[in-house]
Protein 1
Amino acid sequence: MNRKYVLTIAVLCTVLIEPIQAFADIKLGVFPRRPADVTQKTFQPLAEQMSKELGETVQVIVPPNFKEFWKGVENKEYDIVHYNQYHYVKSNKEYGYRVIVANEEFGNKSIAGALIVRKDSGINSVSDLKGKTILFGGGKKAMGSYIAPTAILQKAGLKEGIDYKVKFAKNPPSAVVGVYKKQADVAASGNVILKIKGVTKKIDTSEMKILAESDSFIHLPWAVKDSLSPEKTDKLQSFMLSLGDSKEGKLILKAAKVTGFQKVSDDDFSVVRDIAANVELLNKQFASDQ
């Protein structure tokens, strides 16, 4: 057989097979709360067990930043997605994603936004932040590290761009590390950030303190695309909720840096919707005043 003919057939087969494989895979999108390489390692054991449970290959996708991650949500590239609370309420309203479970971390089922400073900063109240630079741990869709901390600031009467300067870090750990290194005055992040190993390994967290916390809200959610079948959705939810019942499951939870998953519904995100709506409204008012 002609060698060129054989090569042509081989190339055509590859072209045809790859899209089929890509279509068959279930894509698990994870937001860049932590560095991409850490996130990939963190959720790979969970994805591998999901593959066994669902009978299909589950591929972990970790975009390099929040902007690229959200593009994937908008384009409905993820069959399963792990993200923040605001991401969920927005994706539920606009793209039909359905929540199935939420994290439990350090034994807590809820979380809050926080403003974090160095203990030697001389900053002892939110009112002391006037004229300071705040390093937010992600973009303006980050619930724990932008929206909730902004609610704290607005409650104190501080206006973004007027009373304080805004900078953005790649993710929450980077924001805290940046403030530790005196690259900004305040870090905005979730209130559990000083317990996360990605932070404790890089800085002496005993030199940091939480200045203020927002109202608490349900922990980080997991949702599925509206096209995922009810059978697969139920199987996935049951699997995640049962992980704490076996030795193997507990190892997967440990690798995922959670103490468990909790069953939640859309109604559990009413507080998130209220906080986000108030921040969005006040931001519009502040913008019109300038």
Protein 2
Amino acid sequence: MAPNSWSLLQSARAIREGKLSSVELTEACLDRIADRENEVRAFAFLNRDLALAQARAFDEAFRSGRPAGPLGGVPLGIKDVFDTFDQPTECGSLFFKDNQPLADSAPVALLRRAGAVILGKTVTSELATPAPGPTRNPHDLRRTPGGSSSGSAAAVADFMVPGAIGTQTKASVMRPASYCGVFGFKPSHGLIPRVGVLRQSRLLDQVGSLARSVADAALMAEVMIGYDPRDPDSRPAPAPGLAVASLEKPPAPPRFLVVRGTPWSRVKPGVEPVFEAFIEKLKVGGLVADSKDLPGDIEKAAVWIDTVMEADTAYNYGHLYRRNKNLLSPGLMATIEKGRNISAEAYLAALEQAPLVAERVLEFLRGYDAILTLAATGEAEDTPESTTGQPVFCAIWNFAGLPSLALPLLKGPEGMPVGIQLIGPKLGDCVLLRTANWLAEHCGLITD
């Protein structure tokens, strides 16, 4: 098995134990990219010499006695909305063509500190909005990989990198993870600082990780957690031990609360029976998987998130619209125009609901370890030029800043991946990861 197909944890361990060098792993990833990039188109920027120079520098430092770090020598993909001092950050937009930041974003700086090799910049849809980019789904090149973290999900799914990072404003980590058949993790709002990351919405923008196991996704997220006073929502609190928690055994089999609700009206044909069969299998195995309707005061978050996102998009991207709106996609132009007409009263009223929804979910979850639902409406869309899919299964949880995780547990009627999504209470990340890893193991997935 080629090193590029190993998990992140396997790779980091092999490097620490001297069984593999960072250069060997990076070369294997670069060779895979060379074989597949023309078809998958996952990368917005890639410089083989730069990637190998980082890997050689790590190997030399490690041999001289410097600690490897938790991600020591492992190459990662970085969504092209994160500033990188040595690689351009173009955000999928002509407005940022050839833009070269002077410093790393906070998450990238923390990844480097943990020993990671920043392999390249992965494709994002336009300014992290729904407008599709060039990336295709590696399982079926006629389909979308989802968005907006499209390149990150596709690169991980196609064994180009062991892990990658993305962002989510509505569903931009969960949906690509579901469509591409990988694990996607988005921690609680405020844990990962967003300094140097493209800003669409202060309330909604959150950083996440994509990988081929729960533990890999947890480790990547953990090293990005830290207090940064430049981010007004950053939390001055000790970082939770996500990586350790993800591998712990729960004291008892987890209890799942299965939620359907309004989004189920958009589920694609043939997917609901697959989901129902999965739930029944859990129940036959003796697990608690109770079903409840989502309370109306939580479902309303689907309306509030649109109000916030549209107004924030108009505010944060309005200067681009005024400079040259013709460089924006028609969909983004329409969102900005709609957002400009939202009243301050409506916007502030919607903002006030976010912490209330988070508290209401905590009450709703009492007695259970995680909410269980779909991560997307079904298999990846087969019209990649026009859509990246619907965010309806993720928007509510993202609005409330809750931790969520997509697991590639199902196959749809056409044989494409369909992700299961687990959601936990605000700051309940450790329990959520432990529960997710347990479920993955219970379903026979290799997680390390």
Protein 3
Amino acid sequence: MRFDQALRALESRQPELMPGPSLDRIREIVNYLDHPELTYPTIHVTGTNGKTTAARTTAAVACGHGLTSGLFTSPHLRSITERFSVCDVDMTEAEFADAWAYLSPYLDLVDGLGHGPVTYFEAVTALAYVWFADRPVGLGVFEVGMGGSWDATNLIASDVAVLCPIGMDHVAELGPTLADITGEKAGIIKPGRVAIVREQEPAVEQQLLARAAEVGAIAHREVVDWEVDGRGVAVGGQAFSLRGLHATYEDLFVPMFGAFAVHNAAAGVVAVEALTGAALDEDTLRASLAEVRSPGRMEVLSRSPLVIVDGAHNPAGAEALTEAMPEFFTWDRLHLVVAVSANKDVPAMVAALAPLADVVHVTRNDSVRSADAIEVAEAFTSLGAAVHVETSVAAALEAARASAAREDAILVTGSLFTVADARRALGIG
């Protein structure tokens, strides 16, 4: 089987309508496969924002300490193969095609069992389970796709669960209240295991601690049990110290921007401490952190003018981005290129981003879920912003670059789909 054939077969599993919450299909798949997801220890990462950074850091630190680690993240920016990697080496197209050829008959079998057809995300999750088992890996690090309890990744043992900040997002899918959303994400905390809890709103933290107590899990809370200290801006990223579970680590550096990036990376470090039950080698930790990258998260793509992309896709992410930008960058005028998804709280996102911008270029991204550009533009206009509507992210970026002076900045945001479009427009893989 060729990669393009495998990719078409996977794409055909994109549902027209999302099915209701169920683990029936993914359970049937792993039953037929003899449970590959239970053949290696696992660290499970959820949250509304920051989970990709935490997952990438977890895998990098574990690999640096000699633990061959598979990483499963979503979504991807360029190719589906980005979602699967082992110690920072992505799955190849040939490996994807081979893995799909092996998995495909099982998917077809489960399609006919009466639970409905296997979805796109269930299929890629099953592929990760299988590929990691076949490598084999000594650790699997899984980022939740959405929520937790009903996510296809939630069949792993979740020896350590990492809970990044939880807020209002995916309301239609996860529930109308913050308590509903928290309850879904708390579902990755497994009986007798460990939870690493990032700093949360008080009500969210109480609910997470209640879940841990209910299932007999140990919860390690940020600030209480571990803590970032002395964070500061450094060339190309940030320096910080970390009081971990088993040691204090000084003079650490991550090549990422934004306070949130440091705290999420720190959660990944603490997750590895929790898994190993011991202090980490400080020199190895420094070297591992210095190599961590999180594409599409306050990522600088070019300079003169400065072009930054960020996948902020909900109000909390937009607010964090707005706060972080002036801490790390300077500009004369800021040109905002924005395309958001229709299922998000668009007015709240616009309210968070508008104060940054001198001029706004609103458009649609390539996703079918992209919000109507006119409606988004009207939200910016109502706040007094100077707005231009463009036909695509590429066109919006071209317009912003044409009007930007050397000392200006261009910020592309609103969705990781928007980021992916911008990277393609600039010829970045």
